[in-house]
Amino acid sequence: MTRPRPPKRTLDSYTIKGISKTIKPGDCVLMRAPDARRQPYVAKVEGIEEAGRRRVRVRVRWYYRPEESIGGRRRFHGAKEVFLSDHYDVQSADTIEGKCVVHSFKDYTKLDAVGSEDFFCRFEYLSKTGTFIPDRIAVFCKCEMPYNPDDLMIQCESCSDWYHPTCINMTVEEAKKLEHFFCQSCGPENGKNTQNTQNGSGQSEHKGASKRRRR
């Protein structure tokens, strides 16, 4: 006679072995990849269950890294960017290596420091079709690319548009020293040029990697 399977029991939480951190449904985790040379997978815990003999499984919704998506990594993808996919799975809780945090794009850009456990998501990814939600986002600079929070950008004081230093024939070091910046479109119109003055008011705005330090 076949021995009946023990009933599954839903758990409210689970303590990760070896690090004594507790996870609950809704938390994000790092899960060990089959190939030890690969980075850990990022997943959102949807549910936790005990299947008998103290075997705990987690139902997860995977985040994809850009290089795991159809089309691969593009210039505007941040180093810590992931996509919330429509790919669900059930995995052994023993494969969980630790907790992580997947921030909204807006919250990520406000972080004072980015840790190894910090990621951000601004797209949902439909893995079967390779499409994204939303399918369009704001673009910046002459190159008309979405914002990559790892890249430094400077803002024109007149039109408020943002530019990559390399797209306006400037080095990052030169851009960091600017106290005032007017783009090519606004400079001639206003009789102003890009300038690096020592007695300026320091109104030129920067955004990107220079405003955060990695730890």
TrEMBL record:
SMART domains: BAH (SM00439), PHD (SM00249). Gene3D superfamilies: 2.30.30.490, Zinc/RING finger domain, C3HC4 (zinc finger). GO terms for cellular component: nucleus. GO terms for biological process: negative regulation of gene expression, epigenetic; regulation of photoperiodism, flowering; vegetative to reproductive phase transition of meristem. It comes from the Eukaryota. The keyword Cell cycle does not apply. Residues 192-203 have a biased composition (Polar residues). Residues 21-136 form the BAH domain. InterPro entries: BAH_dom, BAH_sf, Zinc_finger_PHD-type_CS, Znf_FYVE_PHD, Znf_PHD, Znf_PHD-finger, Znf_RING/FYVE/PHD. Keywords: Metal-binding, Zinc, Zinc-finger. Residues 192-215 are annotated as: Disordered. Residues 138-189 form the PHD-type domain. GO terms for molecular function: chromatin binding; histone H3K4me3 reader activity; transcription cis-regulatory region binding; zinc ion binding. PANTHER family: OS08G0421900 PROTEIN. This is Chromatin remodeling protein EBS-like isoform X1.
